[in-house]
Design brief:
The complex is a heterodimer of chains A (313) and B (307). Chain A is α/β, with parallel strands linked by helices and 313 residues long. Chain A contains ten helices and 13 strands. Chain A starts with a helix and ends with a helix. The chains are: A alpha/beta (313), B alpha+beta (307). Chains A and B meet through α6, β13, α7 and α9 of A and α3 of B.
Chain lengths: 313, 307
């Protein structure tokens, strides 16, 4: 995926954080269903990645993408399985991951269905979806809410012959982030706490933080086990972008940990946000992760890191 | 049909047969055991590069900052770095012997791939020769990347994509996962020359060209590398050693040891070309007597204190 396309996807995907949901034209969106490992696939296109697990029990999804893309996404899923969607796990509140909940739940019901799917999310996701929306946005209809929230550190269940473990990683990208581990397939779906093509989007307005983000990346590294010489093994499906493994997450974590160390030092010295920006503290990573245009620019990342670590609003 | 003498028909058929099989014979077989030669860049490749030495690298400001803030403790403190192999673009420069073998399709007898095995981290590569495309953008990246080869006369030209982030030089100069490298393999009797051209839109302003040479060594026996990562000192999770910008005390050592002007050690495209020598004329003061890596062409004569 080239950088422009990734940035465009992130722009569309995260626009919901601070504004109205973007206009999506399903006719122009290209979706790609890629095999990951074991029983797990990933559906990539505009919006967040949708992780798909299929088997004799039916279909499980991690995230649902944008609502307008649901029929097209469902058509791709039906190429893998005709079974009912039984589980949907939502990694966080942003609409590029949650927008399709109602549509996918409806489209995923078959004659074998025993009712609508369980829609699992950490309780902060439900709290934010049921509360007032940013910028006086419209209320989110009840059928788009999770119906199976959890508030303990983990939630697990068994589906399609394997254990599925959902971990809450607090105060990272948002305050309601979940990562989902398919234990037999050895695949970890991370949501937007890991977006290898861009700086992490720290959504301060929804409880995100730099330290929480680093802790979440450390948790991913704890769970993943590489095969020979730090390659392969557990495959990581990021919130956006290509398939990865532990080594890719390590590089990303290292970047953020080093950036954090620099900001802490500058904040300790009493530097203002403008002084920090002028010092170009992320210069070495900007050509890899940064952007001067679009929804999530390098400047916005710097501001978020500064505010997160300094406590200044 | 005119009558042709039998000998002419036979000759014609022989020529025809030769033409049919010629393409296969025109290609070079790299199969065998190869020992690396370190006459090029010995100190960088054997003991490892000096900190702050970015000479001959067309790096940009981002790469320079990444290298300046690199702390070598990272390769031991970050457990996941302890068994991290060289990238495919660096493997041929690294320490270790090489085995190359061919994969032949048993039905068509056509060359499907070359495979390589290097001692360091038991690294193995496949160079696909069957015309298959490179993987899609969403595919995982690997240390060795995905390689395809084509013949250019007797030279094998290989293109490699889908690399994991790694190093351009083992002193912290990075190479990104967006890099693509091209190799040209040429065999001259018992010698193999590999020219590598790295293009990295993230960290390079122009391609980096390097070459390495190998000598055929049919008696060599490549051992098992083996590596197990293990944290040896308890530290807070996620500790990543690094120097704060402007605080690395070691960056000028290299320039001081070799009498080079500091700016000449900072890399960048300009410093790679002969014209740059004029720019620093009068500022280069080599030590009167060599004191570091004076003779460094094999593992056994590469001591830092050798005179």
């Amino acid at each position: 995926m080239d950088k422009l396309r990734l940035v465009a996807m992130l722009m569309a995907g995260v626009a919901y954080c601070f504004a109205q949901p973007p206009q999506i034209n399903p006719d122009t969106v290209q979706l790609t269903m890629a095999p990951v490992q074991g029983s797990v696939y990933v559906l990539m296109g505009d919006g967040g990645n949708i992780t798909v697990q299929v088997g004799k029990d039916g279909v499980m999804l991690v995230d649902t993408g944008f609502a307008p893309l649901a029929p097209k996404a469902m058509a791709e899923i039906r190429k893998l399985s005709s079974g009912p969607i039984r589980w949907i796990v939502i990694t966080h509140v942003h609409t590029d991951h949650t927008g399709g909940i109602a549509a996918m739940a409806k489209l995923g019901m078959t004659h074998e269905s025993i009712g609508p799917p369980r829609v699992v999310a950490q309780s902060n996701v439900l709290n934010r979806m049921t509360g007032p929306q940013p910028n006086n946005g419209p209320k989110i209809p009840e059928e788009e809410w999770p119906n199976d929230e959890y508030f303990l550190p983990t939630k697990d269940f068994f589906f399609n012959g394997e254990a599925v473990v959902v971990y809450h990683v607090p105060d990272a990208h948002t305050d309601g982030d979940s990562i989902v581990f398919f234990r037999r397939s050895d695949v970890l779906s991370t949501g937007d706490v890991f977006t290898p093509g861009s700086y992490p989007i720290i959504d301060l307005s929804r409880g995100g933080s730099v330290d929480g983000e680093i802790a979440a990346l450390n948790k991913i590294i704890d769970i993943t086990v590489p095969a020979k010489y730090q390659e392969g093994g557990t495959i990581v499906v990021p919130g956006h972008g290509r398939l990865c493994d532990e080594a890719d997450v390590v590089e990303y974590r290292n970047m953020l940990a080093i950036v954090r160390d620099r900001f802490r030092d500058m904040i300790k010295k009493g530097m203002t946000l403008e002084q920090v920006k002028a010092a170009k503290p992320t210069l070495d990573y900007d050509t890899q992760y940064g952007s001067t245009t679009g929804f999530w620019t390098t400047d916005m990342f710097i501001e978020a890191v500064y505010k997160s670590l300094s406590g200044k609003k | 049909m005119p009558h042709l003498p039998r000998c002419r028909v036979t000759s014609f058929l022989l020529v025809l047969c030769a033409m049919l099989v010629l393409p296969a014979f025109a290609q070079v077989d790299f199969t065998g055991e190869w020992a690396p030669l370190y006459h090029e860049d010995g100190p960088e490749r054997l003991p490892g590069p000096e900190l702050g030495d970015y000479t001959e690298l067309p790096i940009n400001a981002a790469a320079r900052m990444a290298a300046d803030t690199y702390d070598a403790d990272r390769i031991s403190v970050v457990p996941e770095y302890q068994c991290r192999p060289h990238g495919g673009d660096y493997s041929m420069r690294g320490l270790g012997n090489l085995r190359i073998w061919r994969e032949i399709d048993p039905i068509s007898e056509k060359l499907v791939a070359f495979h390589t095995h290097l001692l360091a981290w038991d690294s193995e590569r496949t160079v696909w020769m069957d015309g298959r495309p490179h993987p899609p953008d969403w595919a995982p990246h690997t240390w060795q990347g995905f390689s395809t080869g084509v013949w250019d006369g007797n030279m094998l030209t290989i293109t490699t994509t889908h690399l994991k982030t790694n190093y351009m030089r083992r002193n912290g100069v990075p190479r990104s996962d967006k890099a693509v490298f091209t190799e040209h393999w040429t065999r001259h009797g018992d010698y193999l020359t590999v020219v590598t051209v790295i293009e990295d839109p993230v960290y390079l302003t122009e391609p980096l060209v390097r070459s390495d040479n190998w000598y055929v060594d049919p008696g060599q026996n490549i051992g098992v590398f083996g590596c197990e990562y293990a944290p040896e000192v308890p530290r807070p999770e996620g500790t990543v050693p690094n120097h704060l910008p402007g605080k690395n005390p070691y960056l000028k050592e290299f320039a001081d040891w070799y009498g080079l002007p500091y700016e000449a050690t900072r890399g960048g495209a300009e410093t790679m070309y002969p014209e740059y020598q004029k720019k620093i004329a009068g500022e280069y003061h080599p030590p009167e007597k060599c004191s570091r890596y004076c003779k460094c062409t094999s593992l056994f004569d590469c001591n830092v204190t050798s005179k």
